[in-house]
Amino acid sequence: EVQLVESGGGLVQPGGSVRLSCVSSAFAFSAWPMSWVRQAPGKEVEWVSYITPDGANMQYADSARGRFTISRDNSKSTLYLQLTNLKTEDTAIYYCAAGIWRQNVLPPASVRGQGTQVTVSS
Predict the structure, then answer these.
(1) C-beta separation of 121 from 10 below 8 A
(2) Residue 47 pLDDT > 80
(3) How many Å apart are CA 122 and CA 119, to the nearest integer?
(4) N or C, fewer C-beta in 10 Å, the chain?
(5) 92 touches 81 (CB < 8 A)
(6) How does the average pLDDT of the chain come out, rounded?
């Protein structure tokens, strides 16, 4: 079973930055593409980004492109999401998940972490 633990969320002012981390264990992290999705209160899940196993290719949702950067360190079995120029509408729980999750659905608990809250507010 995949084990993923996100961290790095918190309260950030508009225009600020934060880096999310997702540490994995119990599976072959370096062999899997990885995704970030988010869910804001009262809204549907939104896919944010994914990265290929070797880290060479990344894709972003329109809302994330140009402001967010996904990366990974396979030697540390860790996935990252750098969020910059944050807006209030970026407030959400951010989840990492094993695999490519471009649909706007919450990946099953067996392949995702528990999430980390990012709140953008002045």
Answers:
(1) no
(2) yes
(3) 10
(4) N
(5) no
(6) 96
Buried b (16+ CB within 10 A) or exposed e, 92-122: bbbbbbbeebeeeebbeeebbbebbebebee
pLDDT tens track for 61-99: 999 999 999 999 999 999 999 999 999 999 999 999 999
Return d(Cα 11, Cα 112) in angstroms, integer: 23
Q: Are 46 and 39 in contact (CB under 8 A)?
A: yes
Q: With left for phi above 0 and alpha for psi between -120 and 50, is residue 31 left, alpha or beta?
A: alpha
Record the tokens describing residue 100, joined without a space.
């490519």
Distance between CA atoms of 106 and 75, rounded to whole angstroms? 27
Judge contact between 120 and 88, C-beta under 8 A.
Answer: yes
Structure tokens at 39: 């869910």
Is pLDDT at 26 greater than 90 in this prediction?
no
